[in-house]
Amino acid sequence: MALVYQxxxxxxxxxxxxxxxxxxxxxxxxxxxxxxxxxxxxxEIWTMGLWQACVVQEEGGMQCKDxxxxxxxxxxxxxSRILMFFSNGSGLLGLLLSGFGLDCLKIGERQQEQxxxxxLFGGILFWISGITAIVPVSWVAHATVQEFWDExxxxxxxxxxxxxxxxxxWLAGFCLILxxxxxxxxxxxxxxxPSSVHYAVAEQLHRKGAFAFFTAM
Length: 217
Fold this sequence. Notes:
Helix content: 55-70%
């Protein structure tokens, strides 16, 4: 039962990590990091992402404009771009490494130590990817809260609010950290690999056969 449980846990870990990586890539390009509702014109909703600002109109759909300069962005958006790229890259590398380390993969079946190392490195990369996905969305959320409650801004001025991309980013980071934890838990377990079990059983049968042969003599 335990021998079946370990590959299932590995597959669960890599699938959860894959989901987190897809959500992290989606968060990077979604333009809804911040939302701005204009009370004077309720038919328009302004949104801001890492790459562009958009206006959503009830009748005209969505119109977006890319940011002209990277240096002109607020510091939280500049750093968020870099961290999200790093998160996506480390998540992709983690998927590749941990994929080759799965027990259900027949490649390298006799090199269990190397496969364990691949799973370990993959799990650590998922942790790094999850942390670097949570940090930028949390930083943008913190800056948004500070601006929202800033007493120096007149009440008549519209305030930015949380966008949907922030929640997607938090979910992505949680999935990546959970997936990496599941993979590393399978390495920490002291289960014996099925191939070594088959070898031990065969050796026991061989010894019993030899003992029966000498007893019969």
